[in-house]
Write a structure and sequence with these properties.
Length: 238
């Protein structure tokens, strides 16, 4: 059993391995079962799952676990590898452990993730109430006609200037990346799906990813799979 402070040990222990893991609330014993598949010895998907749950919670799709960690603190949760598996049977083993461990934080009783998952009518009603017109209007009125102090106005102004400066720096960096060749990559472009016409070209795939605000690995997956980017574009090497 590991804790969130054991990240270096977890990284070393799980490198290149696939398996099923369990995150347990040490206060009330509620738990979450998950799995990860590392297809090569250099991949470490289990470690990435651990980081997402404990350090990058905005990337975690399970809102039940996320809220529980916010309420009780991540130091009150443990991370445990239930078993290491082969790529082929990982999801089946995840399903097995979900049913046997009574995983209260899991959305589903199977290990297929949340893809194609359909919420119950009760859950849909609760979600609808959370984002009702009345609630939106209430939130909109929170700061309406509110008199801000000169100190607050100054802080907001400085924050806006800093944000603009960061955006400009990022834009300048993107322009620079367009001109820098990279021996490890190839000239890449974005094409129109219907006409297969080249819309924009870049000296490297990395430059394409930065300019279009796409994760580099995601851009590579678009090329390998041939799937559409934003439903109307195709990314491929020139």
């Amino acid at each position: 059993m590991f804790y969130y402070k054991d990240r270096d040990l977890i990284k070393k222990e799980t490198l290149g391995k696939s398996g099923v893991y369990k995150i347990t609330n040490l206060i009330n014993s509620d738990c979450y079962i998950g799995s990860a598949i590392s297809k090569t010895s250099k991949h470490n998907r289990l470690y990435i799952r651990f980081l997402n749950h404990f350090f990058h919670s905005h990337k975690t799709t399970n809102i039940y676990l996320r809220r529980a960690m916010e309420k009780h603190g991540k130091n009150n949760f443990s991370f445990e590898i239930l078993e290491y598996t082969n790529c082929e049977n990982t999801r089946d083993r995840e399903t097995y452990h979900i049913s046997h461990c009574k995983a209260t934080y899991n959305f589903k009783a199977t290990g297929s993730g949340t893809v194609n998952y359909k919420h119950t009518e009760i859950t849909k009603l609760k979600m609808s109430q959370n984002y009702s017109v009345e609630r939106k209007e209430m939130i909109g009125k929170l700061n309406k006609d509110k008199n801000l102090s000169e100190t607050t106005k100054l802080k907001l102004s400085e924050s806006a200037k800093t944000r603009w400066s960061c955006e400009k720096t990022r834009s300048d960096h993107s322009q620079l990346m367009k001109t820098i060749p990279n021996a490890r990559s190839r000239e890449s472009g974005i094409y129109c799906c219907e006409t297969n016409k080249l819309l924009s070209s870049y000296p490297t795939l990395k430059a394409l990813a930065i300019e279009n605000n796409i994760n580099y690995r995601t851009a590579r997956r678009y090329i390998k799979s041939g799937n559409k980017y934003n439903k109307i574009y195709i990314i491929k090497y020139i």
